[in-house]
Amino acid sequence: MPKKTNIAPSRETDVSGHAGRVSAIAGSLVGSEILKIAADVRALVASGRDICNLTVGDFSPSEFRIPEMLEHGIVDALRRGETNYPPSDGTLALREAIRSLYSRELGFTPDLASVIVTAGSRPGIYATYCALLDPGDRVVYPTPSWNNNHYVHLLDAEGVRVPCDAASKFLPTRESLASAVRGARLLALCSPLNPTGTTFTAESLRAICELVVEENARRGAGERPLYIMYDQVYWTLTFGDTKHVHPIGVCPDVAPYTVYVDGISKAFAATGVRVGWIVAPADVAGPMSGLLGHVGAWAPKAEQSAVASMLGDDAAMRSYRASMIAGLRERLDALHDGLAAMRDARLPVEVLVPEGAIYLSARFALAGRHAPDGALLETDEDVRQYLLKAAGVAIVPFQAFGVEKDSGWYRLSVGAVSPEQIDRMLPRLQHAIEAIPRA
What is the average pLDDT across 416-431? Predict the structure, then answer.
């Protein structure tokens, strides 16, 4: 069942007993759970431990380099003197290149006025929230999902969590969303999904989009519409027979209510290059551009120039994508096969087949058991710490992605590890699990 999350920030006092020096929203913002785990990892690495770090949703340049064409294009643009302000909505060349990319690969050509370039994808998500929500407006989002709970908090909105489980590959369905979207202002979706590496099918996404169209048709003239924010930043990274699907492609009638958030950070292993974009209905895109202009959240001009050239070279795009997917699949398949072998050996392990992105979902059903030293593994956090220390594997529990209860499920991310690191880790992990007495 959907769960409402009303966040009422407290006005804490400082050490002098006076009212806090920052706003209630800033003072009560919860920090990144993944960054907290990173501190544990750094400490062990500094002590000389061999750690297979599967926590970061990023790429190690030693494992995945950005495309040479992109790298050289940025340097060449800087040498040409492209170091001044770009247009606040993006250079014309890049916006046209995005339109062409969507026409070639996604089957629709956005209006030029609908395309806004941003400094990575996060400003696009934030601008979507800011442009569509007033305090108290309802945002519906599945759990697990990335950072929606934090954006809800920043906008003082009302979050409605829709818990999902392995039976639906942790993706929402029309049935799970039907009651939640009544009266809501925004439905936040992502595919391939961070943190699970799973994807919508055309049938499942079409049913959800039809629900949104029906909900908007039901609303009266004085009611504001329900929008979909579709985060598809991993869409070029799908595996096997999996094909990326998107709202307008499966349900053209949902176009007036759909905002796409996208970018190069994952497609080109270029998280630090900071080029993203929004594709939104033109009447929504204008206010979004105004918001971003005041914040100054535009991508650097040299990077925009290089990305425009890269997106326009279909052969270079396909060549880089094939190489990157091969590298990701090698790592994900090794992890999946190793965990599946533990499952088949009747160890308390579950694993989903990866479909896209850089993530694998795995369950270690160890809560309630005792570690070899007798310590009770009471929570997912206890299990995480045990596996880090005993097996040298760093993973992220789904609680970091809005899940409230301990479930035993974790995100494993492969963008910053080598195949050799995975191969060395798997026997350690099996030994650490086998060392726990059976319940």
Answer: 98
Q: How many CA atoms lie within 13 A of 55 on its CB side?
A: 25
Q: H or E segment at 424?
A: helix 419-434
How distant, in Å, are the alpha carbons of 36, 108, 264, 362, 390 from that of 121? 23, 21, 8, 27, 36
With a CB cutoff of 8 Å and minimum separation 6, the contacts of 160 are 2, 3, 4, 5, 138, 139, 140, 141, 180, 184
Going from the C-alpha of 293 to that of each of 89, 224, 229, 232, 394, the distances in angstroms are: 8, 25, 20, 23, 39
Distance of CA 3 to the CA centre of its chain: 21
Average pLDDT, the chain: 94
Q: Indicate if the pLDDT at residue 33 is higher than 80.
A: no
Q: Which candidate, 132, 308, 153, places its Cα nearest to that of 226?
A: 132
Reference 88, options 302, 297, 272; nearest CA is 297
DSSP code string of 133-145: --TT-EEEEEES-
CA distances from 319 to 188, 313, 359, 428 (A): 32, 10, 22, 36
Instruction: Report the DSSP pairing between strands 115-118 and 276-279.
Output: antiparallel
Paired strand residues for 279: 115, 260
CA distance 222 to 137: 15
Question: How far lies 338's CA from each of 37, 349, 391, 429, 437, in Å?
Answer: 24, 10, 14, 10, 21
Per-residue model confidence as pLDDT tens digits over 162-179: 999 999 999 999 999 999
CA distance 345 to 435: 14
